[in-house]
């Protein structure tokens, strides 16, 4: 069903991303998507430990981070993930079967390239709708206070798992 141009993934991605006039506007709105609890307690003397959890990090749009980053520093990205990616793509069942089942070397190379592009579509189908969901439903998806998160999604650790279902239920037509 993924070949249908009107499936839920495409509707989520297209309608969510096209709600913004430009990619720069999408980025600006992403950095402005602070939950209300963060906006209220930011800069207050009584602010709790969770105030800064709801603020998007300045490095959110950078794949290559600083060498001392807490997420994935650039040496880990270059040396660690590259080695893992080479192992993954060389041992991945989809790519191996495409190469072994090909009728010629050209077809094998083409199948590997197409399989790699299909894997890159994950960014369009999953990551971009997640960014749009954070912008549209900031208080639900980006809740920073465990008490608020518990009320929203019955989990005190965060409600990021609500991003795709919320966007899907609000944007996809009713009887789809």
Which descriptors would you attach to this protein?
membrane; Na/solute_symporter; Na/Glc_symporter_sf; 176 residues; transmembrane helix
Indicate the topology.
Layout lengths: L7 H10 L5 H9 L4 H6 L32 H18 L1 H8 L4 H32 L1 H4 L4 H8 L9 H9 L5
Helix pairs in contact: 1-6, 1-9, 5-6, 6-9
Subcellular location: Membrane
Family: Belongs to the sodium:solute symporter (SSF) (TC 2.A.21) family.
Pfam families: SSF
Structural class: mainly alpha
How many strand elements?
0
How can the largest sheet be summarized? none
Arithmetic mean pLDDT: 79
What would you note in describing this structure?
By secondary structure, this protein is mostly helical. The chain has a domain of 91 residues. 59% of the residues lie in helices and 0% in strands. It has nine helices and no strands. α1 packs across α6 and α1 crosses α9. It is globular and about 65 Å long. The two termini are 13 Å apart. GO terms for molecular function: D-glucose:sodium symporter activity. Keywords: Membrane, Transmembrane, Transmembrane helix.
